[in-house]
Amino acid sequence: AFKPLVFSGVQPTGNLHLGNYLGAIKKFVALQETSDCIYCVVDLHSLTAQLVHADLQDQTRSITAAFLASGIDPKKHIVFNQSRVMQHAELAWIFNCVARIGWMNRMTQFKDKAGKDRENASLGLLAYPSLMAADILLYRATHVPVGEDQKQHLELTRDIAQKFNNDFSARIAELGVGVEIQVGEETVNGFFPMTEPLIGGPAARIMSLRDGSKKMSKSDPSDLSRINLTDDADTISKKIKKAKTDPDALPSEVDGLAGRPEAENLVGIYAGLADIGKEAVLGQFGGQQFSVFKPALADLAVDKLAPVAAEMRRISADHAYVDGVLRDGGERAGNLAETTMKTVRDIVGL
Ligand code: ADP
Ligand code: NA
After folding, report:
1. Annotated binding residue 215
2. Top CATH class, 5-198+319-348
3. What letters, b where the CB count within 10 A reaches 16 and e where it falls short, cover 305-332?
4. Distance (Å) from CA 22 to ligand 1 centroid
5. Which fold has domain 223-315?
6. ipTM of predicted assembly, 2 dp
7. Which of 222, 297, 311, 316 has the fewest CB atoms nearer than 10 Å to its CB?
8. CB 146 less than 6 A from any atom of ligand 1
9. What is the mean pLDDT of the segment spanning 2-19?
């Protein structure tokens, strides 16, 4: 039977927040039941926007600890950090030569992160999606759980796979290394799959608590904008209490959230934490004021996050254990990666 192969990554760049947890990590945990999973701390990616980091090793351990504390099983699945498996960089280079500069220039994340002074952005920031495509396709992953913000990068991953399959179609056929790949309505012979993003649910895009038009982000200068996984109960309650809202009561239908981004965001957070739909949240709180809803949300958040935070602190203090997990995961990922790269080198003629 077909078993999905899941790959995803999180950058080791501080301030792991509720958006990362609900939009990504919680989905990673759930997928373990049905899929073979590879979860990666993408340290190479963290150099793209900022080259010098205070403590990359500690940040890497902290994200690894978050994976483990959330319930990812490193024995049944693979947990490792990207820089251990040099094939990521090798395949990214080949993909840099497959992808077109125009494709990269169209990426909204690049435009956002580069800002006005694009000429001065690092080449790595521009090429980021090409490394991301390599991360995924090195394992020929079939599914990638991510937040909404990564949708465009996943489309680019498929474009790269398709161009590679197409440009090297003769060589892939000659070597007999192709498999049947569904491209839209058509079935073609290719080496890399058309990876499907797994985006969705009420928490696919958690917004800043201070500004309903911006996503909750590690890099937001305002600490009140996000709930960090490591925040204590008082801090979580304070941040939710101070979250921007409008003066109206909650509606009883999801349609009633239209044009109320801050209200919609808090309802989405509740739904994501409780594993229910927004409808069910409004069924319970429709007609209530935020003075009632916010304390209930704070209690739920503390309830769900406090055990993860405590476990995260315990695990990240045990350097030997965390380093062992990464070493073992890196070895297993490295073997899979080398199998793919042997064929890729053959296809390309290297
Ligand atoms: P960030 O975007 O916070 O810097 P990463 O790039 O490491 O963090 O993203 C890790 C994962 O978290 C990705 O799958 C990303 O899509 C998801 N993610 C990031 N921010 C949010 C958010 N505000 N809501 C939902 N998912 C998010
Ligand atoms: Na991101």
Report:
1. yes
2. alpha beta
3. beebbebbeebbeeeebbeebbeebbeb
4. 9
5. Tyrosyl-Transfer RNA Synthetase (1.10.240)
6. 0.96
7. 222
8. yes
9. 92
